[in-house]
Write a structure and sequence with these properties.
Helix content: over 70%
Radius of gyration: 20 Å
Structural class: mainly alpha
Largest sheet: none
Number of helices: 2
Oligomer: single chain
Number of strands: 0
Strand content: under 5%
Length: 95
């Protein structure tokens, strides 16, 4: 991705900020996934009907899949940011 900024320091700052935002989002997503796992564990240990357990499990697993996909997308975003940061640092170092 070509850098269009004439100020590598500004671009570096912006990319670091975006990377930090992505890391925070990853952290929150992981926390939500952990909570979801706890809900599933509780549902399994509860003395509900088989139908209740099936519905809770299906819903929870759907949510876990969505969160897992989101987590993977954010991880890719962080990797992209790190790569861009490397490019900016090279540009700044060569200036």
């Amino acid at each position: 991705m070509p850098m269009t900024s004439h100020d590598p320091e500004l671009m570096l700052h912006a990319l670091k900020q975006k990377a930090e935002e992505a890391r925070a989002a990853l952290h929150h997503s992981a926390q939500r996934l952990t909570v979801l796992k706890g809900i599933l564990e509780l549902a399994v240990s509860k003395n509900g009907t088989i139908e209740e357990l099936r519905l809770v499990s299906e819903t929870a697993l759907e949510e876990a899949t969505r969160l897992s996909t989101y987590f993977d997308e954010l991880r890719g975003t962080v990797r992209s940011c790190v790569s861009l940061l490397d490019q900016v640092e090279c540009t700044a170092g060569g200036a």
